[in-house]
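sorry for the late reply, my laptop died twice this morning and i had to redo everyting from scratch. anyway the thing you sent over, i finally got around to it. pasting the sequence first so we're on the same page, its 371 residues, then the predicted structure underneath. double check i copied it right bc i was rushing
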Amino acid sequence: MQEMQSFIAQIKNSQTYQRLALLYKLGRDFHGAKTTYELIQELRSTHLTEQQLLTTLRQHQEISQFKQQLTAQVNLGPDEIGLICAYGIGDTYFVCALAQQISAIHGQARIVVVVKPEHSDIPDLFQKHIARKVTLDRTVLAKICDSVDLIREFSHLAPGQLFFAHPRARLGMQLDILGYKEIHLVDLYRVLFSLKPDRPLLQPAVTEAAWASARQRFQEYEFPEKRTVLLSPEATSTGILSETLWQAIAEYFCDRGYKVILLVSPNSYFLLPGLPRVYFPLSEAIPFTELCGTVISLRSGFCDLIATAQTNLVVLYPDQAFHTGTVYTCASLRLMQLSSSAQEIIVSDDTSPEQVLNQLSSSQTATAPTI
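ok and here's the structure:
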């Protein structure tokens, strides 16, 4: 650090061409010659002032320091690949479910998954194929998401390296290819990791401890087993559906003797009178929903997580554009082959609750209709 400050002091008192030469040495020693050379070419063409030059230097210094700190925290061995999972439940699930395939094409490298605290249970569903997990504060991971420069720093997939495990790491603006000619989310993750198109996802394995905990929790709530309907009306990446629709669904099942419960975030604005809210950790999601018997959910990462659960799963897809396709074409559980039994319903703006209820009472194996 003292040497870095000395370089900056020299830059402040030098002429423009000298500053550029020192900047090159600074970059070679602290950041990487290739990146700095590109920066020098940009500086020559834009004629940055000394203050602007120093700001740029500070930014590069911060990036270098952040990378060093994160690398030290994860502490990868030479035979370990670190996968940074900084986005949603579904994204983390896809990465973990492809862990075996990623390891196989990198000489059976050990897979280390870096996750947010709230997603730390997801790697446990694939613990036979994930060597270890590292939990970091969500603000640390969010900083990478917000910086193209940081994403670039973690874009090399190889043993001994940290890799930003999201399509943005390689595809950039090509994310808009999602939905084109039936290209879906799992396809993008296979491309991200250079996997063949037919490479399967691992099946999650719930531990006996998670099953026992879920059963105890379910009994404490005093819900009837296989006669409980879990409603999950929230998502972060898709549009919402009206409370009127959810209320109609709740009444439909209540009138038929089911217990209807609500899964929403702790600070949710979403209120349905008379419905109890429930909470369970992600490790218990599969057993808890199997004990319920029926789940009706807005398309979200939660759907990916419970796609293999032995439960009556109904997924509602808002009929809206999503990248080059729609929410359904980009993220259908059936199209992605995450589930062959889920009932999928596309809900447009003019869809009435009665039309949705008619679909709920129809065959559970029908392909997704637009209603």
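The first strand starts at residue 80 and ends at 84.
thats about all i looked at so far, will dig more tmrw
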